[in-house]
Structure formats: structure tokens, C-alpha cells
Amino acid sequence: MIGIFDSGIGGMTVARAVEQLLPGYPLIYFGDIARTPYGTKSPETIIDYSLRNTDFLLKKGASLIIIACNTASSVATDRLRQEFQVPIIEVVTPAAEKAITRTKTGRIGIIGTRATVKSDIYNRIITGRHPEFKVFSQACPLLVPLVEEGWINKRETKMIIRRYLHPLQTNQIDTLVLGCTHYPLLKELIQARIGRHVHLIDSSVEAARYLQKLLQEQPDLVQKSDEQSVEHTYYVSDLTDSAQHVAAEIFGRPMELHHV
Ligand code: DGL
Fold first, then answer.
1. C-alpha 31 – ligand 1 centre gap (Å)
2. Measuring CA to CA, which residue among 182, 178, 155, 154 is closest to residue 165?
3. pLDDT tens-place string over residues 190-206
């Protein structure tokens, strides 16, 4: 079974991409809504929560873990790989690699939570491989609560996006990484503001593609089941109206969320 966790509902954009690309694979998701957001917390706390989330998914039968949260991917991946023997996939490296192949000018923008930006992980991966590239990072702490409130198309959200993207426009980026799993829900607003000439990289989709490739190479990592009877189970640590609403928005169908 594929185990996926996030600090809340944003990681469902990864689960959706996995459902679409790998329909025959059973999946179990854990969204830590009770303790969200992770993006404002210390690395120690994020690591502690990530260890518990992984442990929960493994006890439920996962044989592979996707950290569907840029924040947890940025600070907890090494620790999870030390602690657990199963493959641990994070969302940062596939997105950084995609940005490297897409940029023509070598000027790449990153948007994410404060913790992701502070970790400097995207910059380290990208300039580690291409020292001549320039990476411009912008923390966008207000975007996660706006998505969680369902304020996807509000005037206020557009204004805040405009403010956050302004420095990246000034720096003339040609590629922008949506370095937070909540941001795909704001993709259209972000694209409209940054301009059509800027290529957006969705870390959720890139992580799902990475998993697809891995399973082609090593099919035994996850046992496939019949597409008709395949089970996708969604757990959350708190069950709120807004979580139900945003989950339905992400999947385009009513979602059954199990409270644990
Ligand atoms: N899902 C998190 C991420 O991708 C953002 C939400 C949070 O701060 O917990 O970084």
C-alpha cells in the first residue's frame, strides 16, 4: 500500500495525482489537521510529527511513504530515512529537478512556507547541480490559511498573491516552483499574476510522476490490486467542515474522511 502524509489537506493534491497516475494501487492518506500548520513550527517539532505520521501509516500496512508536504520534506526526510527501512519519497527533489530541466534562463523562483524557505533546500539542490543558476525564494505564510478557509477565488487572495509574487517578477524568473502542496489550488491565480511566460512546476504532480517511474523500475515495492476494488482510505487527525469542503474541491467528489 502507498502511504501518504501531510500536515493537513494540501497533500491531497499529491494523493489526487497518485490516484490519477497509478489507479490500481491501494493508498492510505493521513492529514494531520489537528496539528497543522507545520510551516510555522520548528524543525524538531516537524520531525517529531513526521515520525509519528510515518509510524501510523506503516502500522496500517503501507510499504512505501510519500511525504506530501514540502515543509516536512524539507526538514524531516533524512531522519525518516534513518528511522524506517521502507522507501521514503519526498516532494522537493522531483520538483527541483523538473525546474532545472524547464528553465531556459536559469532564473528560478520558489514559493513555500517559512520553514521550507528557511531550510534553503530548493536553492541547495538547484545550485548544487547548476552553480550558475539563480534561485529566488519567497515565503508566502498567508496562502495556506486562505486555502484552508476555501478563499480560493477571493479578491483579498489575489491581492496577497500579487504582493508575494512582486519580488519574483522583479527578478525576472522564467520558472516558478509551487513549493507547498496547498498551492496547486491557487495555480490559476498564481499563473495569471506571474504571467503566462513563467512556467509553473507543481511539486504534487512531480512527486506522483517520480513514484510512477520508481514503480515501473521496482514493481514489487507496492502490491497492485484490481482497479475496480482498489481501496483509497483518507484519515485525518481532526475532522472540520473546511477540511471536508477543501477535500471535495480537490478531488471533485464528496470525500469520506476518517477521524483518528
Ligand atoms: N502542506 C504544507 C507544505 O507543503 C503546507 C501547510 C503547512 O504549513 O503545514 O509545505
1. 11
2. 178
3. 999 999 999 999 999 99
Its CATH architecture, for the domain 2-90+205-259, is 3-Layer(aba) Sandwich (3.40)
Name the fold adopted by 92-203.
Answer: Rossmann fold (3.40.50)
Q: For 39-87, how does the pLDDT look when each residue is reduced to its tens digit (9 = 90+)? A: 889 999 999 999 999 999 999 999 999 999 999 999 999 999 999 999 9
Give this prediction's pTM. Answer: 0.95
Q: Is any ligand 1 atom within 6 A of the Cβ of residue 73? A: no
Cα(125)–Cα(129) distance, integer angstroms: 6
Pocket residue to mutate for ligand 1, from 5, 92, 181, most atoms within 8 A of Cβ: 181
Q: For the chain, what are the domain ranges?
A: 2-90+205-259, 92-203
- The Cα 139–Cα 39 span in angstroms is 10
The ligand 1 atom nearest the CA atom of 203: 4
Grid cell locating 105: 534562463
